[in-house]
Amino acid sequence: xRPFRYILLLIAAMTTIQxxxxxxxxxxxxxxxxxxxxxxxxxxxxxPTVTQSLLLGYTGGISVRYIEEKFFGLIAEVNFTQxxxxxxxxxxxxxxxxxxxxxxVPFLTHFFFGNRIVRGFINxxxxxxxxxxxxxxxxxxxxxxxEFSQKSKVKEIYTMxxxxxxxYGIMAGAGIExxxxxxxxxxxxxxYYYGLGDxxxxxxxxxxxxxxxxxxxxxxxxxxHF
Length: 226
Fold this sequence. Notes:
By secondary structure, this protein is mainly beta.
């Protein structure tokens, strides 16, 4: 239950901030829809450890943003997100990467500062992801493994199926928005996501006791202001 406790604490903190901001002077509401695309750099936090470098992937989706109070708003998105891990092999000439595809739905609190032309912002909140498929790339046969020089390799990882189809965690990011016309805007944003759920089973008899997604995202988006 600990991951759900973290999410509840975050929501409670956001509600408190929203209440305090509501005491400010009147602000003309804004409603915005947008599209975006970008790059992901991801890994999976495994216990026991799997040596890795960041895996390059892609993301893109649509967003809805509503701002009613000065400095504060809410964002909901639906995105396609690639993540996973890219294993490293020390001196061995082997390569292996595993890409996971998700439909992700973040619900974010939006804090902003600046003016109508240029704004900086911070976004934070929970995200849920729905697993829709995966693929791997390797220069060796995963069903007939070679002899690795690193004896601590977790060899079972190559043939394990993704056990949990729903991923959930906490996301935070920051960026800058440029209003290029009365109704149009461009947004550049960086985000970090930490998964609170595991992609593999984590019982005592299982291979991994933890397997959390970690994702860095850099995206460029277009906004239309109604």
